[in-house]
Design a protein that fits this description.
This protein is α+β, with helices and mostly antiparallel strands. It has one domain: Alpha-Beta Plaits (2-Layer Sandwich). It is 44% helix and 17% strand. The strands form two sheets. Strands 2-3-1-6 form a four-stranded antiparallel β-sheet. β2 (43-51) and β3 form a beta hairpin. α1 (25-40) packs antiparallel against α3 (78-98). The longest helix has 21 residues, at 78-98.
């Protein structure tokens, strides 16, 4: 994957054949720890969300992100290597836990530059559990950075100062901004006013 220093990227992948990748609470926690270790140490994390069969990360590419860690036979930057380590270490743990073999994730992790629609990507990532009808309110999904931004949980892995600077939102406006970004017809589907 190619990253440019100073740009923002939406990184996501899902279970092979759209199958589950998280089977219980400890799996979410384990993956979250791996994100901190392999992604947070190489980039600024603005948003994240773990869903039963996929995950989303919104990152800011830094000098550490784009640093080359392998030059031959193929050039590999630090974040690409971090993503590889995240997925392979998590896959090995789940294979052992579930007694399965084969690919847990789809072969290609997607990475899209969001410089032109950063705020939209930020809200989209947080809205995932709401849109999937896993919760009635965005703030009720435990496995996203949204509760962290609202101060409902201790500071975690997010570079909140980047979100405030680039997305122009803060704790006081986040709920209003997030719900305003949801189409009205969607709000009616889950009974949120």
């Amino acid at each position: 994957m190619h990253f440019s220093e100073g740009s923002f990227y939406h990184i996501y992948n899902r279970g092979n054949d759209k199958r589950r990748i998280f089977f219980d609470e400890r799996n979410y926690e384990f993956f979250h720890q791996k994100v901190r270790k392999y992604i947070g140490s190489r980039s600024g994390i603005l948003a994240w969300c773990l869903m039963p069969n996929h995950f989303h990360l919104l990152i800011y590419a830094t000098k550490d992100t784009v640093a080359l860690v392998k030059k031959t036979p193929v050039r590999v930057n630090a974040l690409t290597e971090g993503i590889r380590l995240l997925l392979s270490s998590y896959t090995k743990a789940i294979q052992k836990q579930e007694g399965i073999t084969g690919n847990l994730f789809q072969q290609k992790t997607k990475c899209v530059c969001t410089d032109d629609y950063l705020s939209t990507a930020f809200h989209y990532i947080h809205q995932n559990p709401f849109r999937a009808k896993l919760v009635h309110r965005i703030e009720d999904w435990k496995w996203s950075s949204f509760p962290e931004y609202l101060g409902l949980v201790p500071a975690g892995i997010c570079a909140r100062e980047l979100a405030v600077a680039y997305i122009k939102t803060d704790k006081d406006r986040l709920l209003t901004d997030s719900y305003a970004a949801i189409p009205e017809e969607f709000l009616g589907l889950v009974g949120v006013a």
